[in-house]
Amino acid sequence: MVSTSLPSHESPVADGSANNVANSATPAFSPLYQQIKGLILNSLRIGEWKPGEAIPSEMDLAGRFKVSQGTVRKAIDELAADNLVVRRQGKGTFVATHAERQVQYRFLKLMPDSGDLNLKGPAQRHIVDCKRLRAPSDVARALALRPGDAVLQVKRVLSFADQPTILEDLWLPGAPFKGLTADRLRGYEGPMYAFFETEFGVRMVRAEEKIRAISADHVHSQLLKVEPLTPLLSVERIAFTYHDIPMELRRGLYVTDTHYYRNELN
Amino acid sequence: MVSTSLPSHESPVADGSANNVANSATPAFSPLYQQIKGLILNSLRIGEWKPGEAIPSEMDLAGRFKVSQGTVRKAIDELAADNLVVRRQGKGTFVATHAERQVQYRFLKLMPDSGDLNLKGPAQRHIVDCKRLRAPSDVARALALRPGDAVLQVKRVLSFADQPTILEDLWLPGAPFKGLTADRLRGYEGPMYAFFETEFGVRMVRAEEKIRAISADHVHSQLLKVEPLTPLLSVERIAFTYHDIPMELRRGLYVTDTHYYRNELN
DNA sequence: CAGTGGTCTAGACCACTGG
DNA sequence: CAGTGGTCTAGACCACTGC
Q1: Which helix (H) or strand (E) holds B160?
Q2: For the segment A238-262, what is each residue's pLDDT rounded down to a tens digit?
Q3: Å between B93 CA and C16 C1'?
Q4: What top-level class would CATH report for the domain B8-95?
Q5: What is the CATH architecture assignment of A110-261?
Q6: Which of A116, A166, A212 to mutate to test the interface with B (most CBs of B within 10 A)?
Q7: Among B9, B33, B32, which residue's Cα sits nearest to residue B19?
Q8: Where are the domains of chain B?
Q9: What is the pLDDT of residues A44-79, one digit of tens each?
Q10: Crossing angle of helices B32-45/B69-81, nearest 10°?
Q11: Which positions ≥6 away from A157 have C-beta within 8 Å?
């Protein structure tokens, strides 16, 4: 644990020449604010400040790292742009969390056809299954595990207005999620990623999705209460924690007759 | 046309008090750099600098607007974040364009299963149809036109490795695209959005997509050479120019057996 | 009121590009 | 080499929050 004021110094650069690594092959120039960003990132990763908590003020951090406030500011700007941290004028800068009302379901892009906004919030959740087993090779590859390593599989159905809409198959690495059970999942109110944060200290930072159209088979049609062969949106997501470590493989099937997957392109 | 050095002054703020509008109901505080951003945006909109051209240097703009370089810098930072402008160290800041190799197909998120990168670049394009007609009500609504206004409809098929993969139905407002024909489209090499820029001065700035899974009907199956009832990804896109004016409605159907729609969540 | 993030400035210097 | 964007600083002041 790092104390607020450091004994010696935590300065990012030590060479007095030109702030640049004196290599020939790799220029490897990294501006000061990037190094500061890295240091703050490390503190986030080791949990020096927990999700929802405030991090030290810009002036404090500037003092700690022996740089100007402006440099700290630029570092925090990038962390805020990456959604790792949230700035609140007059109050401070806070570690981002999936547990807040506004940013809840940040990774769920499904929207109802009518009533644009997130009235979808309180979905009915039904845990179908939750078991521990050995990772199939495709799951192991996605989660950077060895085939046969312990993984948890969670199967659940989300419904909106009593219409089953999302069928999900989650795969989690066994080690970080030791002790997860269907009952604990059922007992938790709120987004699953918030549950992962508070119960297992695993914070999902970003995710990648591969989207396809597929046909419902008999299992799908029963759980989602649609005709077999109904076209479904297949959404395969890999979610990453800090260090770009994959921590979840989620295979979702969305019924898209009254909902759609919304994406914005810039 | 605005000359480089202005006769009187183009200063954004005129009150000497506190830079703030002295209203009670609306705080309406807008920082200087936002106002500068607005002024630069206007110049982009009226075409003072064309896509691909360099805009004036930060120092020049600072002089023009009578603010410090840092303030101009922050304004341009935001324009760059919005992909309206591209910064190139040592060279200048350039108006973004869809015609560049690197940013080409910025709005196309379809990826081949193997060979991650954009070897997909040179797709075979086939214009099926291009005709002028009166806007159906749903198209009119999407393009902010009156039902019955003149619109252009373009139907085309994109193939990768001789496999038809994308069937697209485009709807464009008639007025800005007067003179567009199938032949002109066929004659153009490169992305369609680059074609729109150079030929019609219409630059697409951002887009929204609604994605669903649907079943191929007979028309789809013939054009895409797949079995009827094959599940297809339906991608309905509305693309916007400056001022958030919708300028294109594009209904795409993607065959997703060897390709997938890739999305990143932050 | 003090403390936080947010804006703005002026100036110095660095890294990159091209002639 | 001059010109561009990129970094860093120090200091002043503003807007917002909560006590």
Answers
A1: strand B150-160
A2: 999 999 999 999 999 999 999 999 9
A3: 14
A4: mainly alpha
A5: 3-Layer(aba) Sandwich (3.40)
A6: A212
A7: B32
A8: 8-95, 110-261
A9: 999 999 999 999 999 999 999 999 999 999 999 999
A10: 60
A11: A125, A126, A128, A164, A166, A167, A168, A223, A224
